UniProtKB/TrEMBL annotation:
Signal peptide: none annotated. This is L-lactate dehydrogenase complex protein LldG. Residues 66-184 form the LUD domain. It comes from Nonomuraea endophytica. PANTHER family: LACTATE UTILIZATION PROTEIN C (PTHR43682:SF1).
Amino acid sequence: MDTGAMGAREEILGRIRAAVKGAPDVEIPRDYRTSVTVADPVGLFAERLDDYRAIVHVVPAADVDAKVAELTEGKRMVVPGERAWTRDELAAADGVVTGCAIAIAETGTIVLDTRQGERAQTLLPDYHLCLVRADQIVGGVPDAVARLDPARPLTWISGPSATSDIELNRVEGVHGPRTLEVIIST
């Protein structure tokens, strides 16, 4: 930060400190929701993913390997952490396969807990296949935050990458995978 900006910052903060000097302390209520109860987390999570135009498969845990093989047959897939992938390899890949740290039923959000440098591996390929175990699905955001490590790089995904232009025309795949496919194992 340049000296002028730093001086302006200090001047503004000094004015604020002077304005509140002697003001009584105010108690701020912290009665936030800390847990969300959902009757059918798997069903609600799958419904929310479908709302986001993700492709969802709910399968028994014993059938996950066969489903992954079926969905990735003949495709060049990236697996983060498997090895260091170059940008050219990522660009040439058909997709990426990941697990997740947590999934949120209420919002249909998947949270990836990646090591530094792996984020591009989940954002560059056009197709993302994510494996989610039923025991990783929590009711709401407060439940997820309580279980996540805030020191880790986190990527929060709610459906395929999408944006809308000024006329609200939806365009998918602009800032990440165009297709999100999720296998939920029960």
